[in-house]
Amino acid sequence: MSHSVRDKVIFFTGAFGLIGQEVATYFMEQGARVVWADLRPQNEVIRVLHERFDEASFLVLPLDITSPESCQQAVEQATGYFGRIDVLVNCAAIDAKYDADAPMNQSRFENYPLEALRQSVEVNVIGTIVITQEVCKQMLRQGHGNIINVASTYSLVAPNQSLYDFGQGTIHYKPVDYVASKSFIPNFTRYLATFYASENIRCNAIAPHGVLHKHGEAFLENFARLSPMGRMCEREELRGPFEFLASDASSYMTGSVLTVDGGWTAW
Ligand SMILES: NC(=O)c1ccc[n+]([C@@H]2O[C@H](COP(=O)([O-])OP(=O)(O)OC[C@H]3O[C@@H](n4cnc5c(N)ncnc54)[C@H](O)[C@@H]3O)[C@@H](O)[C@H]2O)c1
């Protein structure tokens, strides 16, 4: 039961995002072959990949997970290049922004715009399903597969809105769209796990929280006060949990949600 991802073919959606970049790069350092799929591939990151890694070990693909045609094309290209997809990591998602200067506080539940809600559901729910459908067709053809969905603590608990109160008078809240769309992930994970358990495809989720990235002082202070471990997550701390789920060390795990949240959901 190896803990290694060496030689595994790993298809990453949202590969150029904060978490995607960190984990996809780490997987390549460990000898995996990685499909970097994203709506917005970044030239600077691609340049570094070409510098650091063998061309045969990665493939960059433009992908819109909300488009069935785009998903079908990406899966065809990935399997054409690598012959199979061992692991799908569903990392692509949006954390929709709202207009903080709008006359009405749009982040309040009763004011949150329907269009923004629809957009989050389109990407985080429908898009996640569409790309998974396409990859599952390939996993069924090859007779095995492993899916890792990226959830959030807000898939499991409500936001503590005081995290977003910076004492400036106007309180902005974590809006409902993210909670609504991400709370789909744990049960989708259980759905896939049980649907495919007899067909050698397993599915688990990781629920991270608060990955450190250019956060302001007031946010960091609030976070430290509310978090059992008193700090945000360093992005390197996500490597081990992702590697564990992507490797054969977790071979008897399916349908579980691994929290990587410094204890946020423990109290
Ligand atoms: N960063 C955190 O603190 C945190 C905490 C908990 C959960 N998460 C979850 O982790 C995952 C990654 O988050 P992140 O912080 O890296 O976000 P990010 O915004 O940095 O990256 C998301 C990536 O998804 C891509 N994307 C967006 N729409 C797409 C589409 N339609 N098709 C294909 N790609 C698309 C974006 O281009 C981007 O590169 C998300 O599912 C998020 O909900 C993040």
Automatic annotation (TrEMBL):
Keywords: Oxidoreductase. One of its GO terms (molecular function) is oxidoreductase activity, acting on the CH-OH group of donors, NAD or NADP as acceptor. It comes from the Bacteria. The keyword Isomerase does not apply. Pfam families: adh_short_C2 (PF13561). Belongs to the short-chain dehydrogenases/reductases (SDR) family. This is NAD(P)-dependent dehydrogenase (Short-subunit alcohol dehydrogenase family). It comes from Rhabdobacter roseus.
